[in-house]
Design a protein that fits this description.
Low-confidence stretches: none
Order of helices and strands: HEEEEEEE
CATH superfamily: Bacteriophage SPP1 head-tail adaptor protein
Shape: globular
Strand content: over 45%
Length: 120
């Protein structure tokens, strides 16, 4: 049952994502450790979805509209907070950062994202 459900969910994936982190890496020749961007996962199937949230203003001003961005992907991937996630879907590539803890289920996980502004 889980395999059938997982396959059905993965059929909805229309994008790919690459996950990059900032890590200390030791040069094998000089033995000097320097921080650099490292690709943790490359071209993983995923689905990006958006949810608009409207809240009424208590001051009588205009309503505030915010947007929640969620990324769905397989549950085995461990994506640390602060990672850069580059998503290509529907011909558009956008850089995001992972914010918050993942919502992990048996057959997929959801990550709440925000636009990438730089490493923390």
């Amino acid at each position: 049952m889980v395999n059938a459900r997982r396959k059905a969910i993965q059929m909805l994936y229309r994008g790919t994502c690459t996950v990059k982190t900032w890590e200390s890496v030791m040069d094998p020749v000089t033995k000097i450790t320097t921080p650099r961007e490292v690709t943790k996962y490359l071209d993983q199937p995923c689905k990006l979805s958006y949810q608009k949230q409207t809240t009424a203003s208590s001051t009588g001003g205009p309503a505030v509209i915010s947007q929640t961005i969620k990324l769905s992907l397989v549950p085995e991937l461990e994506i640390p907070a602060g990672s850069k996630i580059i998503v290509t879907q529907d011909g558009k590539t956008t850089e995001f950062a992972r914010s918050g803890e993942p919502e992990v289920r048996m057959d997929h996980q959801h990550l709440t994202l925000e636009l990438f502004k730089g490493y923390a």
